[in-house]
Structure formats: C-alpha cells, structure tokens
Write a structure and sequence with these properties.
alpha/beta, Rossmann fold, two-stranded antiparallel sheet, 25% helix, binds S-adenosylmethionine
Length: 246
C-alpha cells in the first residue's frame, strides 16, 4: 500500500501533538470556543470503556494510535497496550514520548509564526507497559493474538479498504472483549475510493458488518476540535460506539 504522506508531514505531527497533549488554553485560546470538544483522545477511552467487564491483566490494541495519547490512557486500565499506526513519524514521536515523557514541538499561530510548546504525557499515566509499532491496520502482522480491548478512533474513514480491518476484528477481539470505535464518517476519495464507502449511514454499515460477531453495547456522539492555527479550528462530531464480542 502507498504511504499516507499527509500523516508523515511535520505540520500534521505538530497538529496531532497539540491535539493529543495540548492544554485547554494551548488548543483553544478563545473563551467562547467549544471547550467540551477538548480531550478527545482521553474521552474515546474513558467515555466508552466498560471497565467492569475487563479481565485482570487485560491486553489492549490501539489501532491508528497516532502520537499515542489514547494508548497511554488505555494503560491505566490494561496490563499491556500495543499502539499501531501507519505513520513512521507519529510512531517515532510516540516512542519518544514513551521514553522521556515529553517532546518539544511548534504550534502554528498564523502564516509562518509558530509557538514553541512541549507535549507532556501526564505523570499519572503509566508508560512502561505501552509498546508502539508502525503497521498497517488493513494488513496487521499475523502473530498479534487476540485482545480484551481494541480501540480504533477515527481510523476507518482513513483506510483505503476499511472492510479489510472489519473482517479481521472478530479474530482480534477475544470472546467477551470490547471494541471501542469512533468515526467522524468523513469519507473522502483521497483516502478511500468511493466504491469502498458505506452505501447508507456508517452506523448502519457497521451494524451490518459487525453484528454477526459483536453486540452494540453503547453509542454516543463525541465532539472534537483540532486546531489548525490560532484562528482556525476543525470542529467535528464523531459517532462513538462500544461493541462486545460474543
Ligand atoms: C484521523 S487520525 C486519528 C488518530 C487518533 N486515533 C486520534 O483519534 O486522534 C487517523 C490515524 O490513522 C493512521 N492511519 C492511516 N492509515 C492507516 C493504516 N493503514 N494503518 C494504521 N494506521 C493508519 C494515521 O497515520 C493517523 O494517525
């Protein structure tokens, strides 16, 4: 598969470091901005997880983990976490954050102006039990095994053939395990050829393809905000769901 070059750029790396690790004031300097849309990579874990059905010593897989914030969040609930992303640049940053707990970066202000910031993994999140690796969610290595929890936030509509990942999910999630999925349903030909888009709603399409092996246990609308520069933001509402493997 061709690399997804946009996720290898410095601009996207800086944007995702801010999205995952920025403080409220760093991301949203406007008091009238949508502050309830902050902390998305935290909420995709904390709002969706059912910790009561997680076994002791749970294994988790975070697909499309980007620069890793959700993987570190998962590590508070699970004994081991594997974060996989196709972007070498994101995985390099995630590994630097794992090793030292911080990483300097620049947030876009306007034009060529930037602000020097430092991404910090919150001190209360474990880092030692998280492993990051570069990989393709449509062609994962065969020896991954199965997981008590699989998290894939805003990944499906960035895949050229999302059906390939969907077909692998019943094997990746152990019986009784949970699948936490979010998607902004932003289908774009740049990422996914239209013949691989859902024909109806993404929710109906996922129900059709997942219901043989999974029960839809919870769903929510989760807003998120990505800062492009100090005066331009993407505000989006993801459809978020928890599925339990039968
Ligand atoms: C929209 S971002 C979401 C990142 C993160 N989960 C979040 O919610 O902030 C999509 C992520 O999927 C990754 N990605 C794209 N294609 C992929 C593939 N084939 N396998 C694994 N990751 C992929 C990108 O590098 C990027 O990090």
């Amino acid at each position: 598969m061709e690399a997804t070059p946009i996720y290898e750029t410095r601009r996207l790396l800086d944007e995702y470091l801010l999205f995952h690790y920025g403080t409220a004031d760093e991301i949203m300097p406007w008091s009238f901005g949508p502050r309830e849309a902050l902390d998305f990579p935290v909420r995709t874990v904390r709002n969706l997880i059912d910790s009561e059905i997680l076994p002791q010593q749970a294994r988790a897989l975070d697909l499309g983990c980007a620069v890793g914030r959700s993987s570190f969040e998962l590590a508070t609930f699970c004994e081991s976490v594997i974060g996989i992303d196709y972007s070498h640049s994101f995985i390099h940053a995630a590994n630097e954050l794992k090793a030292s707990g911080f990483m300097p970066y620049k947030a876009a202000q306007e034009g060529s102006l930037t602000q020097d910031l430092i991404a910090h993994v919150p001190a209360d999140l474990p880092r030692g039990n998280v492993h990051f690796e570069q990989g393709d969610a449509m062609n994962l290595r065969t020896d991954l095994g199965s997981f008590d929890l699989v998290h894939a936030a805003n990944l499906l509509c960035r895949l050229s053939e999302p059906q390939k990942l969907i077909a692998r999910l019943p094997e990746l999630v152990a019986p009784g395990g949970q699948l936490l999925l979010t998607t902004p349903c932003t289908w774009l030909a740049d990422f996914t050829p239209p013949e691989h888009w859902p024909q109806g709603t993404t929710r109906d399409w996922l129900k059709q393809h997942l219901s043989t092996h999974f029960t839809l246990a919870a769903e929510q609308d989760l807003p998120f905000v990505i800062r492009e520069h100090a005066r331009k933001f993407q505000w989006t509402v993801a459809w978020a769901s928890r599925w339990v493997r039968r």
